[in-house]
Design goal:
Elements (H helix, E strand, L loop, with lengths): L1 E4 L5 E4 L4 H21 L5 H26 L1
Antiparallel strand pairs: 1-2
Length: about 70
């Protein structure tokens, strides 16, 4: 771990992903993708597209809420 100066004058931590960490992350992503493919396998393209729009809207609302709470 490397300490670097943050723009606000605080101390930030810079973290580097190890090769083992990258492998585990890749394995985890592959498992997640395979699971989603199985779960959504019988959904129509239109249903998946609508779900993606709602999920994007939901995530945006969470971000807006979080930003408002920090202000």
């Amino acid at each position: 771990m490397e300490r670097i100066a943050a723009p606000q004058g605080n101390v930030a931590r810079k973290i580097c992903l190890t090769s083992m960490g990258a492998e585990r992350l890749s394995d985890s992503r592959a498992l997640s993708i395979a699971s989603l493919e199985q779960i959504l396998g019988d959904w129509s393209s239109a249903d998946i597209e609508q779900f993606a729009k709602y999920l994007n809207r939901f995530n945006s609302s969470i971000e807006e809420y979080s930003e408002a709470k920090r202000a």
